[in-house]
Amino acid sequence: xxxxxxxxxxxxxxxxxxxxxxxxxxxxxxxxxxxxxxxxxxxxxxxxxxxxxxxxxxxxxxxxxxxxxxxxxxxxxxxxxxxxxxxxxxxxxxxxxxxxxxxxxxxxxxxxxxxxxxxxxxxxxxxxxxxxxxxxxxxxxxxxxxxxxxxxxxxxxxxxxxxxxxxxxxxxxxxxxxxxxxxxxxxxxxxxxxxxxxxxxxxxxxxxxxxxxxxxxxxxxxxxxxxxxxxxxxxxxxxxxxxxxxxxxxxxxxxxxxxxxxxxx
Length: 265
Hints:
- 59% of the residues lie in helices and 2% in strands.
- It is mostly helical.
- It has a two-stranded antiparallel ribbon.
- Helix 5 (114-126) runs antiparallel to helix 6.
- The radius of gyration is 30 Å and the shape is extended.
């Protein structure tokens, strides 16, 4: 006897029309899932840093004032505890604090080791060292001092990820000081080396080219610290050779009949 379903009931084993059958959901393999999640997370991170993003990502947003206050109080247990009231007497909101924090970070690394570099350069000039040797020593010394600065790497990360307008505003003063101090030093060293900028290049061109070179090697040194330090048969590091190459690419020897002071001022 055939078992007939009661009115209104449907046997689970009854075959449904082909057109209404739900497609079988494919079970995604673990490694495929891993790749999908990583790719999607990467795309989200990129989208949040694009200038056209509806809500620009600010890496400093993770620095909450409550955490800063707690850390200040922890480090200064014998002093009166700071509260949010003290914060709001200075900044109207978290966003204003983050903007000033960005400027502070950029100011901290505006001219890292500038005083030491200038003192070293003038000492080498006073000792009558060859211009190429001076460029070698100051490039390597500058790299040692800046690579030891955690603030510098923080600033590089913020410059790459924070909203463009915020970075531009924060760096305005820092960039001006950096250019002025570096201009002064390089102008002296070029005169000492009896060189001058090429007619179609400016000191600012040279300064930013050197900075781009230095930043590139600083970032590479985080994963491959040996790369900028590799030396040739004369003891010159890769970094120093590249630095001198940039200086020579943007400048030219002075004509023989040109008089230039060789004394730092």
